[in-house]
Amino acid sequence: MEIVENLIETSQLTDQELVKKHRQERKDLQAHIQALKKSIVKGDKKKKKEVTEAISKLEQELDARQSLELKNVAVNDSLPSNDVTDVSNGDIAEETVSAASKVSRAQKRRTKKETENKEREKRIAEEEQNHRQGPRVVELNTIKELLQNDGLQIFNIPADGNCLYCAVNHQLEVTGRVTSNVSKLRKLTASCIRENKEDFLPFMYNDDDDEVIDEDKFEKYCKDVANTKLWGGQLELTALSKVLKCPIKVIQASGPITIQDDKYEGSPLILTYHKHLYRLGEHYNSTITFDNMQENEDAFDQAP
Predict the structure, then answer these.
(1) In terms of domains, do 92 and 202 share one?
(2) SUPFAM superfamilies attached here (predicted)?
(3) Same domain, yes or no: 248 and 163
(4) Given CB 3.0 to 4.6 Å as the disulfide criterion, which of 11, 139, 205, 213 pairs with 217?
């Protein structure tokens, strides 16, 4: 239904409005791509390969969707408007011929429109079928199965750049620990990275090469962690586990389940890691038990 809704929405836009929308989408994608690159730990070739593939997939999906939207708008623009033909006051026979001609033209327009609508519906159906069998659904079902083994289910977290910190804070609540807020967790994370620079710096490198970042970039990174919606990854997970003094368990569809600092006692904070849930990239959700009666509205159909 998401693809159908997108096509219906964009069909109401003018050419200029659609171009503006597409330009903003590409700008947002480029910003997220930079965040993805920064999440790669130096020397982690597997992660670098995964990020490269993810970026390529994001770009391809955006190209395909925008192309479909452009075609959809083009089809609507190509449909001719109803002609208004003045009938002269002349011969009745001429009026009859003119009326018949108008009926014929109207029928042709209706036939053309019906054909174009059928083709459009066919394309939408094909896109929907591909979507149901795509990596997003496969990944989501795999994670749900893994959680069910432990009597857990996904608790949805908004995809706004703060997903890691929101998920961790929710887990602090459900495990009976002292809760915090996103701003405080970000500042604690940044302070931990600064105070343990020797441990973190070797895994922080430039986007365009494999060189470790310099002092200025290190400080900027810490400031961004503390004060912006910079996406959190492996480094931030490690820092959060350290400052909160509790293990953090991450469930993912591909790759092993990871636990940060399992030396700490107590039940772990259990998060889920998604590579394909949202078009703009990676995402963290929280978890709850099946007998937890908190409202957990399903937001997956609205994923951007």
Answers:
(1) no
(2) Cysteine proteinases
(3) yes
(4) 213
Q: How many CA atoms lie within 13 A of 286 on its CB side?
A: 23
Residue 297 has phi, psi (to 5 degrees) of -60, 135
d(CA 179, CA 168): 9
Residue 126 clears pLDDT 50, i.e. is over it: yes
Q: Assess whether 110 and 150 both reside in one domain.
A: no
Q: Domain total for the chain?
A: 2
Same domain, residue pair 117 and 226: no
Q: Which domain range does residue 275 map to? A: 135-302
In angstroms, the CA 234 to CA 199 distance is 13
Q: Which residues are catalytic?
A: 160, 163, 283
Structure tokens at 186: 């970000």
- 20-61 pLDDT per residue, tens: 888 888 888 888 888 878 788 777 778 888 878 888 888 888
Rounded CA separation 66/72 (Å) = 10
Domain C-terminal end among 109, 132, 155: 132
**DSSP output for 222-240:** HHHHHHS-PPP-HHHHHHH
Retrieve residue 253's tokens: 């569809």
Cα gap 170→202, rounded to integer Å: 30
- Looking at the structure, tell me whether residues 149 and 49 fall in a common domain: no
How far is Cα 235 from Cα 4, in angstroms, rounded to an integer? Answer: 39
167 and 296, same domain (yes or no): yes
| C-beta separation of 296 from 153 below 8 A | yes
pTM of the predicted model as reported, rounded to 2 decimal places: 0.56
